[in-house]
Amino acid sequence: MNSDKEPASSESTRIRIEPNKAINAHSAHDLHQPSQLQWNNSPPRDRSDFEIAIICALPLEASVVGELFDRRYDDQVYGKAQGDSNAYSTGVIGNHNVVLVHMPDMGKVAAATAAACLHSSFQNIQLALTVGICGAAPFDPQSGKDIHIGDVVISEGLIQYDLGRQYPNNIFMRKDTPRDNLPRPRPKVRAVLAKLKTKQGLCWLQNKLSEHLKVLPQKLTETAPQPGAIEDELFANGGVTNPTTHFGLIASGDTVMKSEEDRDFIISRDGVIAFEMEGAGVWEKFPHSLVIKGVCDYADSHKNKKWQDYAATTAAAVTKAFLEHWSTDTPRAPSSDARAKESEEERTRRAKEIEILKMLYRSPYLDQKDRNLDRIRGTCEWFVSHRLFKDWQERKSTRTLWISADPGCGKSVLAKYLIDHILPSTDFRTTCYFFFKDDFDNQRSVIIALCCILHQLFTQRPALLSKTIIERFQTTGEEFARSFRELWDALLCAADENAGEIVCVLDAIDECEDDGRTRLSQALRELYSTSTKRGSNLKFLLTSRPYGEIRQGFRPLDLPGLPIIHLSGESDDEMKKISLEIDIFIKAKVRNIGRQLRLRDDEEDLLLHELMRVPNRTYLWVRLTLDLIESDVNIDKSKIVKITSNLPTTVDEAYERILSKSRNLEEARKLLQIVVAAERPLTLEEMNLAMALALRDGHQSYDDVDLKPVERFREEIRDLCGLIVTIVNSKIYLLHQTVKEFLVPAMNRSGDTKNLIQMKDRYKWKHSLRPLDSHSVLATICLQHLQFQEFGLEPQDDLLTPSEYANNYVFLDYSAKNWFIHIHESQVGLEGTKTQRGEDQTKTILKLCDADTRRCQTWLKLYWTGTNTAFPTEFATFLIISYFGFTTAIGYLPESAGPGLNWRDGTYSRTALSWAAGNGFTHTVDRLVSINNTWWGAILFERADIDAIDMNGRTPLFYAVWNRHIPVVELLLNAGARVDIEDDIGGTPLSYAICSGNDDMAKLLLKKGAQADSKESIIRTLLFASAKKGDRDVVELLLETGIVDPNEKDSDGLTLLLLQRY
């Protein structure tokens, strides 16, 4: 819907077009052939088969789009998710299944709601197009070309021109920080736009526009001709023109633009070419998003509804042309005839491929990349022109490039720039990436990073998902995505000599867990010692801080031909280049602030001069310092002198000043505690609810919670925490890793008392958020939320999956899957911390874990969706509290609580001890194996069966070994657990320990008497594997079994001694 145009009357929704003469452009037609695509005759199987969404705010817009469908489907067949308030039409345009969204209202908020509902019903949408009418600038401020009514504008980006702060004296300041601006279109969308903007592309697009305008009169029932130049207030004497297409920035907001003066100011300030009302609402929900609007007025007081029908039609025609040019990432499902011809083997393979891809997608890697800023033009050039980078880039061999720099020097921005612009995937190169962050566990794991790398690789190059990898997945099952060795071997298997160049970018490896980083460096060492024999072209680009332990880990890789570039620079020349690029960054930011605050040239020059005087500047310091300056609206020359004479000298000092300016310190502290303790990024809606629960007790249902409008809450976050908290795609993050290091004290931090006192006097916020306190805040929020009346009284619709059910209740997905983590991390009510608060919390835990209640079944089934396993039947209360390690709660169970100590669930036949051991809860395991007659009368005469065998022939020890819980393994072994039991596939605890690469566990089992003589072939395999890894201790222990001759050779003719040397 047009931001500058009210809806037309209902009479105008039935339209017919009298098109202009079509353009002949044979050269363009020869170049672009997507119009020849034919749609599949087979209708979609379900809503997941729809890839394209078109969103229209007005009936007149939707009417024209609907007429351009090449085929219509029965909308009732596909339906929608419960709680979805949208109405839909479905069909085919070009070669795409398309869902047309009919919005109930106009505007950004209505569009955001419609987009959220669309996402809940159609979860595989790859491209969302907001199509309709708009007001435009009379000319393109970039090219200077006139824009006529009836022309079409396509967004290259959106500007929320009415998002900002209103100050006295009618001063409005638009928010123009990276966190407030909407992200530009994704690379795939930008690539298509770039192609369409070429001379041939524009000619083809013009031809298709005229072609579709010629077809529409035959479909629509009423003539709505081009009103003609006489109706064009601005170009009345210019004659009739054919509609053309323009590309540029579009202003999006909730205000109808009718002021020529305001229009011109915004055009001058932001460089926009049009104004509309829905795009911003859709943009944040769908990464691949585009706005296509027909111009019906000039965003001024001369409104004329006569052009609305024509503008809607030209927009629809360009939309169809664009879709004929767009290709989806995954092929359409085959037709029923084609499926009938496929062999059972092929169908099975496709199912396995999909299963593998689902298992590998363990973290939203694209969102993690897009948390980082785009580079400022002119920066990062010193690196891409560096001779070592060029050498690494041009070599056709396996190589690694390691970039190290201090915090705030722009490593992640550089990595993003390289991925998107310098090293993008092409026909001969596949680029994959992962951005480590210390704020969430799934962003610290090397195993999850490898999963994401493989997911990107197999998504971009499906042929690399070979039969060998699929068979290995079938053998290992869900453990495939949990084993470093399995994932690494799959990557090496895929990177054969026919795979082309594969580039893996791993950003901030200093923020991944220590064990994972060590295993990665060892794997790279193995790779480079054998790469000459492999013939692959697998390249790694790593960034990190210049920590000594990281340098030590990669020192064995510092070989001839393996360049290591230090971003901080090792020579004066490099330091000068980096410093000059930071100056470019400062100048760009100062110009931006100058526009925002309307500074005079001399004031802007003064600000720039003072900033450039500060030594040792970093990108992060510049951003924080300018944020402090930007927040002062009533600024003048004297204030600039005052502010710049006392600039923060460090990043920590900048953080302290920003937070000290918070309008509400208590609310700021609560919000930051939630952010630093959360297990995953919370959405704006989730944080809105969490803050409401944190600031006031007594909520019993959603109706009791006074939630703020989302956009207002977004503004409040900025007022509370400034730039320190950032919002990306409606998810909340800390600005930078150094924020967490500033706020949260490190574990076991030590220092002399004098320095600690001085730090406390100087900084009120530094190290002020203790992890125990932060987790306690979130534990309280989750417990309060899960006790809402809705989850205890309202029957769950059996037609909905747990995930679909959770979509109807804000924050339920988070609280159900993470509440127990915060209980353990807060240590309230756990072993050795018995207080009145702990006792009350334990009683609440028992209430939530009562297996006979609907409340328990609601959250537990939702939690279980994340385990990728079937939900267990007969999962009694005792099993639940043991599974989650609530040791103290066991002592509060009543005698009537249920079955005995060795009760098994009905699906896996596992006992409480098996579940607790597998999840690593040492205190719970200890309580269960040392049961006495003082704590649960119902099972006084039972002892825990320490070797209870489940449906797969595995005991509790198996699960503790596989999941690397060494303290639990020691406890079970000391309690008499058998180490010689074989499961249904012949595995033993020892074989699982070494197969999973857990050498310490293998040593423990061998020392405790694990017998290895029953499986000679397994021991032989494990022995040679340990020798290749260089683990002498395990090799010696295995040789002591006498199963394998030390002089025996492997398949390559190497003895154990030679392997260890190699």
Automatic annotation (TrEMBL):
InterPro entries: Ankyrin_rpt (IPR002110), Ankyrin_rpt-contain_sf (IPR036770), GPIID_WHD (IPR054471), NACHT_NTPase (IPR007111), NLR-like (IPR053137), NPHP3-like_N (IPR056884), Nucleoside_phosphorylase_d (IPR000845), Nucleoside_phosphorylase_sf (IPR035994). Signal peptide: none annotated. It comes from the Eukaryota. Residues 1-44, 328-347 are annotated as: Disordered. Residues 399-546 form the NACHT domain. The keyword Lipid biosynthesis does not apply. ANK repeats lie at residues 952-984, 985-1017. The keyword Repeat applies. Keywords: ANK repeat, Repeat. GO terms for biological process: nucleoside metabolic process. SMART domains: ANK (SM00248). Residues 1-19, 338-347 have a biased composition (Basic and acidic residues). This is NACHT domain-containing protein. It comes from Orbilia oligospora.
